[in-house]
Write a structure and sequence with these properties.
The chain is mainly beta and 930 residues long. It contains 16 helices and 45 strands. The two termini are 54 Å apart. Keywords: Cell outer membrane, Membrane, Receptor, Signal, TonB box, Transmembrane, Transmembrane beta strand, Transport.
Length: 930
């Protein structure tokens, strides 16, 4: 890497200022200076135990170590930092870190598949490339599929009050942890030791309204002789935040592209003349009948060039940006020291979360199977009828998607030492399970059609014929009416992962002149299960406009890992690890061997120069393997029509440029693992225990990435095959294997269809190993803590991450896309920096955290929107030895998402990068009982 870039990144971090947990690079020389005798006599045992107390278990290694800073960079967030920096939950903690530059889908993504879950994207890579661990063990996947296709881990089920610290390790870690550790590892470590009883109550809300929330947590710990016990309970409630709770998302008048022009409300109720493409004027009185809708804002509206309809400026605001929720979590941890050499242990975390969310008003339009058009026997023309159901019509009890998520993790095991030797052992069973029950009231296609259009009178070339009463459209319905033509769509999805493990470690296998050689070995056998059923009526098409994912599968996996830590000479040590994983499912076998090499060079105690190289893999997603047929609605370009029927018209102006089609997809049992390589190097300088600087370069290259050929790509290939050549004149053979497979994916209407003969109707897609991706960048940080005597203690610090390269290629032979230069608002952040000031004086403590998220492209791709900088702050006072009081605020300056004057789509900002929460304020009290 250009050395200048490393200096610039380090300088930027020093100029910013934010404290992180001080990870001082300790020298191992003082801890390893005592000779280790081969005599295992009892008088040597106390010294051996004392030495073991000096080592720590670090994320990314199986071997306990004396150094906290190792060959791979680690970011650590402590429980104290989580509280003082104003983070609301574990998702908020991770989403706010500079390493989390990628876009994610959360509760703002109205109508998404996983609106009730939260996740994180490290380094701009897919969320599934980040391995989420709890106490060092991989959590079960979320049962519903991210974007309807891939698996990921939900962060919503982890209670923040029980977190001791969180470690983030960027880059490949499969040689230690196995599958999915490509972008990195997030290890969430829960508390395992508490003195006495702590009761914490927190309550607050948002200054602009909505989202009122309360949280109570109780943690307790005690020791009875050989038994150590820790327990915790957390109860939490949060009200939803609606679009109408924010002044910049409550109305169509917020559209930044209006430039003073007239507000054109969304179309709530209309009848479209299919022969002319114009609206049928309902008259002001007809819209007046519905005027109570959307808080009394539904009105008679004219859209220039189209005609009159009924609409409301405020209809978009009736969707939730933050889910309403009630959650309860219980955590139990126990250790029984049976002998000096054997300890039995176990832990259990259980979480239940009940969620209410709303993706916006329910709606219906006529004859969805024929693109909305039917033949009106009363008028003799093609028509399309559209009807939104207002919240007043449906009722509050009906207009929600309800989810209940139950999850648990359990560990049971024993650990100890083989006699008086240096060999430690750890044998345990771990299981993680999550179950999601989803329920919503949704219109049935045949019943809602009959309610508004009456009985079908016949059909005309596949188009149904009705003789409906138009007054039906403009008459308010009741909640009973809505329930009458609807049914409950319910499904319970489930995942689990479980394994048994045997781990052996020896921090002093034998001695070399430079020190002791450490070793660790792991044997693992496990099983993974995924079940995502869909109501059979959804698959059969009984529900109007409703699609869903479905599938189920199980696979077994076996693994063996070995790790060595070798002091090469007094200044240089190496860490070498390797792992072999074997997955078996559906008669298929997928095996991968991965390895990692890390070097640590310490020319003197205060300086560490490090480097690492590693390979990694991600076994095929359970959803990609076992998903059954599912569908969705989208748009596509009919390249074959445009090139043959309108050859002199640019594709962007072709009449078949954006036609509505049905997309259909399914799993592929023959998928193989995604593979990756990563390497990096960096420096840690800690001239004093109070000052540390770090800078690291990382590079990750991913191959065999699973993707589905895009519908656009399939349609281009179909046109090339039918015509015999592409637009550049390169020949295509319609009888070739490529053409035959591509043509089989495209489905067209009959040639005698009166509206769209031979038009597109559906396109099938299938996941395959076809893509590759490369990302590299620099992370840097600095910490300084200063004792100012009577003025207390001041802490300053900084964290910074910048992506230098991010490229992607969908399929071999395609041009490589520079995602950082691609002028698309679907890009994440290129750089994120945080800065923090902590001040403790007497019984008072103050903290301010600033987070700057870099510029991103605007919606139109014509420029960039400004950086988004927010500040969190807290103030705490130790009222007595047992009572702490705190005032905490998130986004103190109430910074809204960056203004984008080209964003015409509601909610007028990029929901995958930003949020509209605004200023949050909490009051917190903690009482400690001995």
């Amino acid at each position: 890497m250009n050395r200048k870039l490393l200096y610039v990144a380090l300088g930027a971090a020093l100029a910013w200022g934010t404290p992180v947990a001080l990870l001082h690079a300790q020298s191992a020389s003082d801890q390893n200076s005592t000779d280790q005798s081969s005599d295992n006599s009892s008088q040597d045992k106390p010294d051996q135990k004392a030495k073991k107390l000096e080592t720590v278990t670090v994320t990314g290694s199986l071997i306990p170590q004396a150094e906290i800073e190792t060959s791979a960079p680690t970011v650590q967030i402590t429980a104290e930092q989580i509280q003082t920096r104003g983070y609301a939950n574990v998702y908020d903690v991770l989403r706010s870190q500079p390493l989390a530059t990628g876009q994610v889908q959360d509760s703002q993504f109205a109508g998404g598949f996983t609106q009730g879950a939260t996740t994180v994207s490290l380094l701009g890579l897919d969320p599934g490339f980040t391995l989420i661990l709890l106490n060092g063990h991989p959590l079960a996947d979320y049962p519903l599929l991210y974007n309807g296709s891939s698996n990921f881990t939900d962060l919503s089920s982890i209670p923040v009050s029980m977190v001791d610290h969180i470690d983030i390790l960027p880059g490949n870690q499969s040689a230690i942890y196995g599958s999915s550790a490509i972008a990195g590892v997030v290890n969430i470590v829960l508390k395992d030791h508490v003195d006495g009883i702590n009761v914490t109550a927190r309550m607050g809300g948002y200054s602009e309204g909505g989202g009122e929330n309360q949280r109570v947590s109780i943690t307790a710990g005690h020791s009875w002789g050989k038994l150590d016990f820790t327990g915790a309970l957390q109860l939490e409630h949060s009200a939803p935040i609606w679009g109408y709770d924010r002044s910049y998302t409550d109305s169509s008048a917020d559209n930044p592209t209006l430039n003073g022009g007239p507000v054109i409300p969304p179309r709530a109720v209309l009848i479209l003349n299919g022969n002319t493409g114009k609206y049928v004027d309902p008259g002001a009185a007809a819209c007046g009948n519905l005027s109570a809708g959307y808080g009394g804002t539904l009105r008679y509206v004219n859209r220039p060039g189209s005609g009159y309809y009924c609409g409301s400026d405020y209809s978009n605001g009736y969707q939730t940006f933050v889910n309403g929720s009630k959650a309860a979590s219980v955590y139990l941890n126990a250790k029984y020291h049976a002998t000096d050499n054997v300890t039995f242990y176990g832990d259990l975390l259980y979480n239940r979360n009940k969620i209410k969310l709303n993706s916006g008003s329910r709606f219906w339009f006529s004859s969805i199977d024929t693109g909305g058009y039917f033949v009106n026997a009363n008028t003799g023309r093609f028509e399309l009828w559209q009807r939104f159901f207002t919240p007043e019509e449906i009722g509050a009890s009906t207009n929600n998607d309800n989810q209940t998520s139950d999850s648990y993790t359990v560990t049971a095991g024993a650990q100890g030492t083989f006699g008086k030797s240096n060999w430690d052992w750890n044998a345990y069973y771990f299981r993680s399970e999550q179950k999601v029950k989803d329920s919503m009231l949704w219109p049935l296609k045949s019943k809602v059609e009959q309610f508004f259009l009456g009985q079908q009178q016949g059909d005309y070339y596949g188009y149904p014929i009705y003789a409906p009463d138009a007054n039906r459209m403009y008459t308010p319905i009741t909640e009973a009416d809505y329930r009458g033509f609807s049914a409950e769509d319910q499904a319970t999805s489930k995942t689990y992962t479980q394994n048994v493990n045997l781990q052996l470690t020896n921090t002093s296998l034998f001695s070399l002149p430079a020190g002791d050689v450490g070793v660790a070995g792991l044997l693992q056998a496990g099983e993974q299960y995924w079940e995502n059923p869909t109501d059979p009526r959804v698959i059969a098409g009984d529900f109007w406009g409703l699609t869903g994912t479905q599938g189920a599968g199980k696979r077994r996996n076996y693994a063996a890992a070995l790790e060595f830590r070798v002091p090469i000479f007094s200044m240089l040590s190496a860490n070498v690890s390797g792992r072999y994983d074997d997955f078996r499912y559906g008669g298929q076998t997928d095996s991968k061997a991965t390895y990692k090499l890390g070097l640590e060079f310490r020319p003197f105690d205060s300086l560490l120069i490090r480097g690492n190289y590693a390979t990694a893999f991600r076994s095929p997603d359970m959803g990609y393997l076992f998903a059954g047929p599912s569908g969705y609605f989208t748009q596509g370009t009919d390249y074959y029509y445009c090139r043959t029927q309108e050859p002199n018209v640019p594709i962007s102006n072709c009449t078949q440029n954006a036609v509505n089609i049905s997309g259909r997809q399914a799993g592929n049992i023959k998928l193989k693992s995604i593979t990756a390589k990563s390497w990096g190097y960096g420096v840690v300088w800690s001239p004093t225990a109070a000052f540390t600087m770090k800078a690291d370069y990382y590079h990750i290259s991913i191959a065999n990435e699973v993707n589905s050929l895009s519908i656009d790509r399939i349609l281009q290939d179909e046109a090339n095959c039918r015509i015999g050549s592409n637009t550049a004149g390169d020949p295509y053979d319609i009888n070739s294997g490529l053409c035959q497979s591509e043509l089989a994916l495209v489905h067209r209407l009959p040639a005698n269809n009166p509206q769209n003969p031979n038009g597109l109707s559906a396109v099938d897609t299938l996941p395959i190993n076809i893509s590759d991706e490369v990302v590299n960048g620099v992370i840097a940080s600095a910490n300084w803590r200063h004792d100012m005597g009577s003025w207390g203690t001041l802490g300053l610090g900084a964290d910074y991450n910048v992506l230098l390269k991010h490229t992607y290629r969908q399929i071999a032979g395609d041009p490589v896309q520079d995602l950082l230069g691609l002028r698309s608002y679907y890009n994440g952040y290129r750089d994120v920096a945080t800065g923090n000031i902590d001040w403790e004086i007497g019984d008072w403590s103050f903290s301010v955290l600033g987070t700057r998220r870099g510029k991103t492209f605007n919606y139109a791709g014509t420029g960039k929107v400004g950086a988004w900088t927010t500040y969190n702050a807290s103030m705490s006072y130790k009222f007595s030895e047992s009572i702490d009081l705190s005032l905490i605020s998130n986004n103190v300056t109430n910074k809204r998402p960056p203004f984008d004057k080209t964003f015409a789509a509601y909610p007028y900002y990029n929901i995958f990068n930003y949020n509209p929460l605004g200023r949050a304020i909490w009051f917190q009290a903690t009482i400690h009982f001995q």
